[in-house]
Design a protein that fits this description.
This protein has about 525 residues and is mainly α. Helices cover about 50% and strands about 5% of the residues. Among the domains are: about 120 residues, no CATH class; about 210 residues, no CATH class.
Amino acid sequence: MNRRSFFSMLGLDSHEREMANTSGSMPERAALATGLEPYTKPLTLGDAYHLLRRISFAPTVQLATQLVGKSADEAVELLLGTGKELPQATPPTWIDATDENPGGADPITKNGIEGKWRGYFGGLLRWWADIMRTESTPLSEKLTLFWSGHFTSEFTFDAAYMPPALLYRQNVLIRSFRLGNFQQFAKDITLNGAMVVYLGGILNTKKSPNENYARELMELYTCGIGNYSEGDVKEAARVLTGWKVGQFNDEPARNGMFETYFSAADHDTGSKQVLGRSIIARDSDTNTEFLVKSQEIDKLIDIIFEIRADAVAQFISRKLYRYFVYSNPSVDDSAIVMQMATLFKDSNFEIRPLMAALLKSAHFYDEANVGVQIKTPAEYVVGIARQLGKTFASDAGNAMTAMEQTPMDPPNVAGWEGYRRWVSTKTYPNRRSFATAMLASMTDAEVVALAKQFPDNTDADKSATALELYFLPKAVSAERHKFYVEEVLLQKQPVYEWSSIMNDTPTAARNIKLLLTTFIKAPDFHLC
């Protein structure tokens, strides 16, 4: 995407376009020589902002200040934590509520149940968005969102709804594995209730095999296209037969509500062969939930990770790279991805060492990788709230949906295409409207307090610079900075008047809001 087409797409007026042309690079970038070697310089404020924009939804002044002067190693260790930490958020009240199967109910009952689920799902989105907004160290939610878009499930699919209680439990599972072992992650997600329902596992029987999950397990979740055959899909589907989920209070739930259970009568007990490896047949005595899980489900995953280890490592490394570093699919990222894949494979598919190495690397902090990602709707919505230090001015889930990203309800099993698709003539007005509403929700005192977080806030030049660095991903040109200071922040008043203006809360708030409004209109406000 060239600079002119990007600006045209945003519908900027002539003055905005002129100022935008002095901004940093648009999301285009050549292949780089830097790799996974450690970044050895102490983190600057700009480095800290860059790291926080990528590993969380936006920097906060408090977190960024805490990182300045630390090594990349120290900062990343602090931000990632062990991966075992969980947010201290009270779960939604309805997570254990049960309903009858609306599919077999009369129309009034069906509509009532589904309407209730829509309300629950909206609440689930608000619950998660607030965790994203308020999280501090260690940071968990950006990784949780990434994996939620990898191991996909949808709230609305096949003209029906997923019980939100299943999606809540899947969200908890994904968060717990965000930095864990990917091989074990694949095993656990395979029998997760939401996944079994979403990709037809509950319909997969020895008499009528359903190949959906078997195919996506290899194509989208582990090794990628070209690393399996149609025969492998068919055999894997046979391995996966016989699993059900306790979804409704008028149907079996042998392991409890919203849990997966095994139906021995529906399992194909014959021998199978996947990727050239055999899974032995079983008799009625060994056709049990424990043995089928350990000797067939787990073995299926182990076979994929053993036979296609290189493919798995490269496939996942590339997805992580494009999500956290640079998402342009046309750029040659093979050199850095191969380094990542080698580390991932050598660490037995542990996610944390891979993420830590990437976020500590010279490549990650390369200037060419700063400010080149287009913010996802989640980054945009949550990020503004985090940076302004405000609660959401409107429903965060609805706001993300208006920008074409509804967490836990992707458009299809492949998730969101992302990159250039995030900003369009349809979504850009919704972005700008949300940001404007967030800014309008601030009191004069809150606006001035925002500016006073930064040192030297009574100096107009330094105050504008601090706000530019905080809200925009790269330093702006001298010409653009001059415009921000003289025309916007000072409103053409002499520079020495700023210290007096800061003592006049209504006037200071008005001028600072004008500056932030100008930022919101800038194309690079959509970059991170």
